[in-house]
Amino acid sequence: MPQIVTIERHILDQQKRFPQATGALTGLLYDMALSGKLISRETNRAGLVGILGAADGVNVYGEQQQRLDMFADDVIFKMNDHTGRLCVMASEEHDDIMHIPDEFDCGNYALLYDPLDGSSNIDVNVSVGTIFAIQRKISAGERGALEDVLQPGRRLVAAGYMVYGSSTMMVYSAGQGVHGFTLDPSVGEFLLSHPDIRIPAKPRYYSSNQGYQKVWTPGVRRFCEWLQALDDDEREPLGARYVGSMVTDFHRNLLYGGVFFYPGDMQQPAKPNGKMRLLFEAQALAFLAEQAGGYASDGIGDILDIQPHSLHQRVPLFIGNRDLVETAESFIREHDQDWLEAYRPFREGRR
Length: 351
Ligand code: AHM
Ligand code: MG
Hints:
Layout: H1 7-16, H2 24-45, E1 54-58, E2 64-66, H3 67-80, E3 86-91, E4 98-99, E5 109-117, E6 128-136, H4 146-149, E7 158-164, E8 168-173, E9 179-184, E10 189-194, E11 205-207, H5 218-227, E12 239-240, H6 246-256, E13 258-262, E14 276-277, H7 278-291, E15 295-297, E16 314-315, E17 317-320, H8 322-335, H9 337-347
Parallel strand pairs: 3-5, 11-12, 11-13
Antiparallel strand pairs: 1-2, 3-4, 5-6, 6-7, 7-8, 8-9, 9-10, 13-17, 14-16, 15-17
């Protein structure tokens, strides 16, 4: 029988490489794993317990929240509000940062999360996931502040996601490679199943909502044709796969090689900055992509180098094999001057 490594053991082993570590990050990652187990249990039972369907709430983007979103959001907050490890939290489902209740101590980390990514898939039993990222506290005050979460992805201490699919997986990196764990529901443990994940050099898939092709910029349209290897006898075309739950699409491309893209557009009303949230979706996955040998860009440059200006800032996103993402950048440089001019003010926080 091969060696069995639980996520707890793995996180502890990684901590041992840093003699100065206090154990706070270790505890935090373990609590994320526990949150994942609880959310997984509810997503598995969703159809049974009648908690499906939209709740009254509408999130800050004007989208309807599903009840499971709210459950997942609450689980992660409650799991982490009293541990003394965090100074502040921020969730895609909340307009503002969330402070640690006064009765509890504050710690040295900030947690950012998208509790249930791809939630429009819940009602049809398609995989969804949780995305999280951890920054170090930089604010002077004791109780944390907005500046703790408005940091470039380059400074992330750790990031990861859970996918609630045919099995539940947790994938994380604390800056030493990307490691994947599969939940064994019979014993309730995440077991190491995918050590040291590297994106395969030969990609297989591209993932994008091609229903929007008409509103894509000329550079993005040409990039997609290039992926399909039109007029190219030397390269094989990539297959198309799009779940509509980015964390799931990203997970597939991480294991098989490929690129996910959700570009900005110039149609009226123009959305030059696309849909993905920089802090709750793009940064964490960009960190993991880089750790696995890949790359993430907004079409101009590295997602990890973008200085965030607001909590719910959106970015165009191209993520996956480095050569594919760099090819997207060069098509955009060559063909999308109008878009570049429209997008830059968003990137630089002038809009
Ligand atoms: P969500 O966080 O509100 O669920 O939205 C993000 C999701 C991504 O997971 C997915 O890739 C994208 O929205 C799908 O959008 P579209 O339906 O426009 O293709
Ligand atoms: Mg999301």
